[in-house]
Amino acid sequence: MDYVKAFLIGGLLCLIGQVLIDRTKLSPARILVGYVTVGVLLGALGVYQPLVDFAGAGASVPLTGFGNTLAKGVRQAVETDGFLGIFSGGLKAAASGITAAIAAGLTVGILFKAKDKS
């Protein structure tokens, strides 16, 4: 049942993104930034964590989950470090995911050669 919940919530998030691409003049970059921002806002309000608890990877893997991770990291760092935690908390919380994305991109870039589309 966990897989079904993850598929439904993750699929719904993807569906919303696809509708925004198809029906609006927003660029994909603006939609991606919007997803991260919504994740930060919902995470800061404490609304996103119950969704993660319900859907697991269906809510934590998409960009809204990244925003939630940033908000959670800032909240924890502010509790321990005070005001300066605002600047470091999000990066500390998301560092492993960012590092994994950079390492995966570098590995793919080394193993495969880019080709022209034509």
Provide a descriptive summary of the structure in words.
The chain has 118 residues and is mainly alpha-helical. The protein has one domain. Helix content is 82%, strand content 0%.
Secondary structure topology:
Elements: H1 2-23, H2 28-44, H3 48-55, H4 57-60, H5 63-81, H6 85-111
Features:
118 residues; mainly alpha; 6 helices; globular
Q: What percent strand? A: under 5%
The overall average pLDDT, rounded, is 92
Structural class: mainly alpha
Could you state the order of secondary-structure elements as H and E?
Answer: HHHHHH
Tally of helical runs: 6
Major beta sheet summary = none
- Relative helix content: over 70%
The number of E-state strands comes to 0
Rg of Cα set:
17 Å
**Stretches where pLDDT falls below 50 for ≥5 residues?**
none
Distance between the termini: 44 Å
Query: How many domains make up the coordinates?
Result: 1
Shape: globular
Quick structural overview:
The protein has 118 residues and is mostly helical. The chain has helices at 2-23, 28-44, 48-55, 57-60, 63-81, 85-111.
